[in-house]
Design brief:
By secondary structure, the chain is an alpha+beta fold. The chain contains nine helices and 14 strands.
Length: 316
């Protein structure tokens, strides 16, 4: 049963990477729009599920981020999208991978979560499910941004080079929401890594890796190097640590007190660096709706809403 909450809560992210200064304002604007769309639902008494969908759709539709329209291209010049949508009360997730004709894969992931006995569908089968449940299919070319086509062309000419891409290391957008009824949902959506092999699936749509939600503990969405996140099952590790007595003992840092949620987020990113030797980040809400974020990249695009409705958007 969902736990009661005094206030709704929302946190979103647009990827952890080396965001150049010239991209900061676009990232901030996109995060702010996603927060506004989700918070309009939550503050009016709407559901966390609706807020997650609205926030992530806003990010998928924003070419600043590597999700939906504007995603990186695979090695053969196509867009393949992944997403997951998870209910913290039932632990039922819906996930989709390697779809090429769905503009907003988070909507398809939600449909799978709500209307399918399965928890993941991929490729053509996922697209058939979308059509069956009135989710429009698009031309695969409609997902390709000129910026990404140019970057892909340059990679073909000059091997694979990060400098050809905006958001080369981001890979993900995501959100976690808690509503007035205590329902907790989390979601993640991605276009994956640039010039990935066709059919490659990273952490984002995998339950426990790129996303996890348990109303008894909290919800998480991850971003960064997918194969590294998969190695440590980072989202599930974070949720488990929120209930671990050792996290209670470790919630004070040399610089002063931090919340348990923040201590857990920091610990997971340290584990990612130490055990997987790679970069990334995560956002989370604990079961009371306290937000936290951590990353070991130069910057991460993320934001959350205070109980008074004010937006906190990063990077500054």
């Amino acid at each position: 049963m969902a736990l009661p909450a005094l206030n709704p809560s929302l946190i979103v992210h647009g990827g952890a990477w080396d965001i150049p200064q010239e991209a900061v304002e676009d990232c901030r604007a996109g995060i702010a729009r996603a927060l506004e769309d989700g918070w309009a639902i939550l503050s009016a008494g709407g559901s966390a599920a609706d807020a997650i969908e609205a926030s992530i759709v806003a990010l998928e539709n924003d070419a600043t981020f590597d999700a939906g329209y504007g995603s990186h291209l695979t090695r053969d010049g196509r867009v393949q999208l992944d997403a997951i949508f998870m209910d913290g009360a039932t632990l039922k997730a819906g996930a989709v991978a390697a779809v090429e004709r769905v503009r907003n894969p988070i909507r398809l992931a939600r449909a799978i979560q709500e209307k399918s006995p399965h928890m993941m569908l991929v490729g053509e089968g996922a697209e058939r499910f979308a059509a069956l449940h009135s989710i429009p299919l698009c031309d695969p070319q409609d997902l390709i941004l000129d910026r990404e086509r140019l970057a892909w062309t340059r990679c073909l000419e000059d091997s694979h080079a990060a400098e050809h891409h905006v958001g080369h290391e981001s890979g993900t957008v995501g959100a976690v929401a808690l509503d007035l009824r205590g329902s907790l949902f989390a979601g993640t959506s991605t276009g994956g890594t640039c010039c990935k092999l066709p059919g490659r699936v990273g952490d984002s749509p995998l339950i426990g890796c790129g996303c996890y939600a348990d109303v008894n503990s909290g919800g998480v969405s991850c971003t960064g190097h997918g194969e590294g996140i998969m190695k440590i099952v980072m989202a599930k590790m974070a949720v488990d640590l929120l209930e671990d007595p050792r996290a209670l003992a470790a919630h004070r840092e040399p610089g002063g007190p931090v919340t348990i949620a923040q201590a857990v987020a920091d610990a997971c990113v340290r584990k990612l660096a130490h055990r997987s030797h790679t970069t990334g980040g995560l956002i989370l809400l604990d079961r009371q709706g306290n937000p936290a974020a951590a990353f070991n990249t130069p910057r991460m695009a993320y934001g959350f809403v205070s109980p008074d409705g004010s937006l906190h958007v990063r990077p500054q």
